[in-house]
Write a structure and sequence with these properties.
alpha/beta; Rossmann fold; 451 residues; single chain; OB fold (Dihydrolipoamide Acetyltransferase, E2P)
Length: 451
């Protein structure tokens, strides 16, 4: 095979053919490495730099920073890769299904015999890369609620301090300071310089916003920064790109100080504008929105003073009229109250006459005497009833008494030495002393025989 670059034929291996050939013709046999190397030279020299259009598929971001993908159309697939040092320049997110135009070169990797399209530049088809990145980030942050109206805070009417995050070398800071001095020269201004363009700008802007908040936390309640202007002057989309970065958007969203975004001109709209509490078309307008005009305040104060004077005069006249009306009503109320009081007093005197102790004591004394007599009669009757019941119980007890039984001729016999009643003749024997109790008296005897 002929090498197109060096016009060299790989030597290979020459062998006599097994099958009949022309007289003296030899067969050329390549090794795998040789033919792979020749293919590498042919492809890489045939396509040193090419533009390729295709649709991204099998997109895969490697932890090393490299990005592997395939470019495809309806008939074929081309393996491709973007190395980390190229990948960092791509602002938008590489997604499956995205149609792109790529610039790069073909590369063959001999150990695997595979070819890959190494991409140096990549842009979306039909739309700029920065514009696509802007739309992708806008969609992401909107879904997270960073643009929600409910999160936006009102800008204080007369802030005690104004913070400014911008470049000291640009025209924006001069415009802001000029407007603030013209509108309210005594306003307290705190500037945190920041890089607003180029490598590292997004990190410096986000850091400046955070540092402004941290500094504000060290200030006393009176005199704190109550509004912050973040922005820069006009420029191309590339110049303004730092304000389209996610890190800046999140710094504005997390700021404890309300933020006025002032990036570029009125026609420019950045992600920072969408997240901020208020968007100003230019840095100068941002300064006008941050503080009121002192002359307007003075005129407003004069108007309020005059209105207050008129209101005070009207209130005084109304007050005098109200006092007269109130005095008249008070007199009427006093007269009515006096009449009611006299009537209530007379009624109370009558009630007190009925409640006079001189009258009540004899009545209660007679009532107590009557009650005492009733109690005495009832107690006498109760005693009689209880006496009759007691006598009846005595008669019953008397009829049941053993002594009454003895009066009818019965007797009780005891062992003389034990006072034990003898109920069975077996309990005594001849010679035992016994005692017999009669109705009147006792008889002592000795047993002579037991039957």
């Amino acid at each position: 095979m002929q090498n197109k670059k060096n016009n060299i034929i790989s030597p290979g291996i020459l062998e006599a053919p097994d099958s009949p050939n022309k007289p003296g013709e030899l067969r050329h046999i390549y090794t795998v490495s040789e033919i792979t190397q020749d293919i590498k030279i042919l492809l890489e020299n045939s396509f040193p730099e090419v533009w390729v259009e295709g649709e991204i598929s099998n997109a895969n971001a490697h932890p090393s920073g490299h990005f592997y993908l395939s470019l495809k159309d309806k008939d074929a697939v081309l393996p491709a890769a973007i190395f980390a040092w190229r990948n960092k320049d791509i602002k938008f997110k590489l997604e499956n299904g995205l149609k792109v135009i790529c610039f790069g070169k073909l590369n063959v990797y001999p150990p695997f015999g595979k070819y890959t399209f190494l991409i140096d530049k990549l842009e979306p088809k039909g739309i700029g890369g920065l514009q696509l990145a802007h739309e992708q980030l806008k969609k992401k942050l909107e879904a997270e609620g960073l643009f929600a109206p409910g999160h936006k805070r009102p800008i204080p009417y007369l802030p005690s301090g104004v913070g400014v995050v911008t470049s000291l070398s640009g025209a924006a800071v001069k415009d802001i300071l000029k407007v603030l001095d013209r509108r309210f020269s005594t306003a307290r201004i705190v500037i945190r310089p920041a890089q607003v363009q180029g490598e590292g700008a997004k990190e410096d802007i986000a850091r400046a916003i955070k540092e402004m908040n941290d500094f504000n936390d060290t200030l006393p309640a009176f005199g704190r920064i109550e509004v912050m202007i973040v922005g820069r002057g006009g420029g191309s989309m590339e110049d303004l790109w730092a304000f389209n970065e996610e890190v800046v958007a999140r710094a504005i969203y997390n700021s404890g100080i309300p933020v006025i975004s002032a990036v570029g001109h009125e026609r420019d709209q950045t992600i920072a504008d969408l997240v901020a509490d208020l968007r100003a078309p230019t840095p100068s307008v941002a300064a006008e929105l941050a503080v009121p005009k002192k002359e307007d305040l003075k005129e407003r104060l004069d108007d309020l003073s005059m209105a207050l004077g008129r209101s005070f005069l009207e209130a005084t006249l109304n007050f005098e009229e109200t006092i007269d009306t109130f005095t008249h009503r008070l007199n009427l109320s006093a007269q009515n109250l006096l009449r009611l009081t006299v009537s209530e007093f007379e009624s109370t005197v009558k009630k007190l006459a009925f409640l006079n102790p001189v009258v009540l004591v004899p009545q209660y004394k007679a009532k107590i005497t009557d009650l005492a007599q009733q109690i005495y009669v009832r107690m006498q009757h109760l005693f009689q009833l209880k006496g009759a019941e007691f006598n009846g119980a005595l008669e019953k007890l008397s009829s049941l008494s053993p002594l009454n039984i003895l009066s009818r001729g019965y007797s009780i016999t005891f062992k003389a030495d034990q006072d034990m009643i003898i109920k069975d003749s077996k309990n005594v024997g001849p010679g035992d002393a016994i005692k017999t109790k009669l109705h009147k008296g006792e008889i002592l005897s000795t047993v002579t025989e037991v039957k």
